[in-house]
Structures are given as structure tokens and as C-alpha cells.
Inverse folding.
């Protein structure tokens, strides 16, 4: 895919390579002090009490549900417009997803519908999803959850670095789960984090990460798994966090440039007023119709510009459509949004010529 404008590529280089080299030579390659150092850097960056690093952003989500004791017969609310792992971990616990529709402008949970679901079904947890990195309205979701005694878990896999009402994403819900996969704003190759202000959740999560082992070696006091991180990954992560503010500010400029050039002719995922920084994991256009979306996608591809259509609604997936689930309606807004969405490249390494090329093709065909 040489000469293509790509959706993104891991922004790693000599700095990360040097850290990895030294870490390997230290002989400590599995989870140890370097992981703790990485977790501290993340906690300081977000301004949250605890960060727990794990193997990836799916097992972090799973661990949050396990820490709440979610099991067979329990309900967990989740949007269908999300990556499949949000839903898979609910089924993995034996619980039943209640799909909540989304707002067609923000692509985030429809909060009126969320309240109706909580009233009717008393779910144990609500998993909000910061789709494309856009933070949900955590305060409002917390308020609804408090009334109906549900725990709010934020799937913030895509929103590291986002700012909600003046605070970095990661301390608003009971627990936030982040992904550090290679396509995320910062990466450790594979990796995940849970952040929380609760000492109780943090200690449960650390035990779950390590096979349920408590303070005594080989004494297992809860259900657990090997969800540990590694110090080699931490050595990449430490460098990446130190570069995160720079990466985010470059992305803001790229997106501003793209949006300025598109003007009113193209509609984007709406950024609500409570968001002080959308980290733009992806920049999502919302076209008039599926036909327009598909034809623009094809023209961009012919011009060597990569795009993504994500994510197909989970309730329509070939496997999941046959599993037990609940929804108040047929999730029309989810399905409609998926038909008209298109993610276009917006990463920090796109140059002005590439932005001009991409925006003029879209404007000529919209
Ligand atoms: C919304 C969402 N949730 C969960 C995940 C899972 O993260 P990981 O790929 O690190 O397991 C992702 C990753 O792409 C995601 O986008």
C-alpha cells in the first residue's frame, strides 16, 4: 500500500526501540516494575487514582464485568454500534446484552432510551462506548445509573487523551477501559488499561489479572485469568505517553484543516459542547445516503485513499443475531447510522497535499 493515504500507522520509532532494547537487556520481560511505572504515568496523565495495565482492551472490559460479579442471567446495557468485543465480554460472563440505540448525530448512547431500559429491566451495569474516541456524557449516564442502581463502565478503548468538561477521560465512570492496540492514538502493540478512582475495584482488578491470586503465592481468592501486561510493552508505553499530548495536538490541527476545507457540505459526527477535546481516533463523515457513502468510498479507494466503515451493528452479526439479547425497538438509528458512516484518515502524519487531495475528491462527489 505504498503511496496510499492510510487510515493510520503506529507512531513508533527510535525512541521506543531504544527503550525496548534496554528493557530486554535488563532481563525483565514479563510484568514487573516497568509496568508499575507505566501505570503511574497513565494515572498522572489522566489524574486518576489507579491504572491497571492488561494484555489488551478486550480483557480489560471482561475484567471490569468480572469485578462486578456479573454472571448468568444478569443484564448489561450496551450500544450495538460498537466493536464486537464490548458485546462478547458480556456473553462470556453468561450475561445478556440489552442493546440501546444511539443518537444519530453523536453516534453515542441515546440517553432517553437508556433511562427507559433501566426503568424496565434493572440491569447490573451500563457499558457506554466512546465511539471514534468521542466521550459520552458521563455525568448524565452516572445520574441515570445512580437512580436505577446500575454500575457505569465506560468502554473508552478509543478515547485516551479525550477531555470531558475540563478533565481527561478516565475518571468519570466507575471504571474506564482503554485499548492500546496498534491502530490506537498511542500503542503498545497489544495492550489495555482500566482506570478507576476506587481502591476496591483496583484491588479486585489486579487479582483478576493474576489468576485470582491474592497476597499469598498460589492462593487463589477469586476467579481470575492471565491478563498480565509485560515490561517490554510498558517500555514502549512509557515513551508513547510522553508523546501523547504532541500527537493529540497534531491531530487537532489535521482535523481542523479537513473540516475547514469541507465547510458545510459534509456532515461529521457531532462534537457536543461538554467535550473539550475529541482525540479523533477516527474522523467520521455522515453522508446523505448509503449510495453516496458507498460511491465516495469507492472513488477514494480508486485514488489510493484508505477508509473504514465501522462497526457493523453487533446485533446483526452472523453469530450474535442468534444469541439471546434484548432491545426496546429494532435499533433503526443504529442501522441507519452504520449505513451512512465513513471514517476517513485524520492521523498526525498526513500532510497538507494529502488533505487537499482527499477533501477535494469528497467535495466533488458529495
Ligand atoms: C470500542 C472498542 N472496544 C473494545 C476494543 C477492544 O480492544 P482490543 O483490540 O485492545 O482488545 C476496541 C478495539 O479496537 C474498541 O474499538
Amino acid at each position: 500500500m505504498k503511496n496510499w493515504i492510510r487510515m493510520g500507522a503506529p507512531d513508533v520509532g527510535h525512541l521506543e526501540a531504544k527503550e525496548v532494547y534496554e528493557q530486554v537487556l535488563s532481563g525483565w520481560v514479563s510484568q514487573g516494575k516497568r509496568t508499575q511505572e507505566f501505570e503511574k504515568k497513565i494515572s498522572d496523565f489522566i489524574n486518576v487514582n489507579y491504572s491497571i495495565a492488561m494484555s489488551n482492551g478486550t480483557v480489560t472490559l471482561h475484567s471490569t464485568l468480572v469485578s462486578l460479579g456479573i454472571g448468568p442471567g444478569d443484564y448489561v446495557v450496551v450500544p450495538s454500534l460498537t466493536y464486537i468485543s464490548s458485546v462478547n465480554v458480556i456473553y462470556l460472563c453468561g450475561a445478556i446484552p440489552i442493546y440501546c440505540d444511539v443518537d444519530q448525530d453523536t453516534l453515542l448512547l441515546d440517553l432517553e432510551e437508556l433511562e427507559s431500559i433501566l426503568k424496565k429491566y434493572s440491569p447490573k451495569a451500563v457499558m457506554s462506548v466512546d465511539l471514534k474516541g468521542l466521550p459520552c456524557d458521563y455525568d448524565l449516564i452516572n445520574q441515570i445509573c445512580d437512580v436505577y442502581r446500575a454500575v457505569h463502565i465506560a468502554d473508552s478503548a478509543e478515547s485516551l487523551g479525550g477531555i470531558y468538561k475540563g478533565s481527561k477521560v478516565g475518571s468519570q465512570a466507575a471504571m474506564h477501559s482503554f485499548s492500546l492496540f496498534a491502530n490506537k492514538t498511542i500503542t503498545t502493540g497489544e495492550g489495555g488499561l482500566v482506570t478507576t478512582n476506587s481502591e476496591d475495584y483496583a484491588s479486585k482488578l489486579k487479582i483478576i489479572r493474576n489468576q485470582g491470586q491474592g497476597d499469598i503465592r498460589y492462593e487463589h481468592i477469586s476467579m481470575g485469568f492471565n491478563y498480565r501486561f509485560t515490561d517490554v510493552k510498558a517500555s514502549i508505553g512509557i515513551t508513547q505517553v510522553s508523546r501523547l499530548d504532541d500527537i493529540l495536538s497534531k491531530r487537532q490541527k489535521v482535523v481542523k484543516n479537513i473540516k475547514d476545507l469541507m465547510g458545510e457540505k459534509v456532515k461529521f459526527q457531532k462534537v457536543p459542547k461538554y467535550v473539550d477535546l475529541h482525540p479523533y481516533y477516527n474522523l467520521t463523515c455522515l453522508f446523505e445516503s448509503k449510495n453516496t457513502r458507498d460511491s465516495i468510498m469507492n472513488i477514494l479507494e480508486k485514488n489510493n485513499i484508505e477508509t473504514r466503515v465501522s462497526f457493523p451493528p453487533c446485533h446483526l452479526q452472523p453469530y450474535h443475531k442468534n444469541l439471546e439479547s434484548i432491545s426496546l425497538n429494532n435499533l433503526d438509528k443504529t442501522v441507519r447510522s452504520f449505513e451512512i458512516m465513513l471514517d476517513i484518515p485524520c492521523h498526525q502524519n498526513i500532510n497538507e497535499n494529502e488533505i487537499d487531495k482527499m477533501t477535494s475528491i469528497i467535495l466533488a462527489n458529495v
Summary: Residues 56-58, 82-83, 85-86, 129, 155, 157-158, 179, 181, 192 surround pyridoxal-5'-phosphate (CB under 6 Å). The longest helix spans residues 231-262.
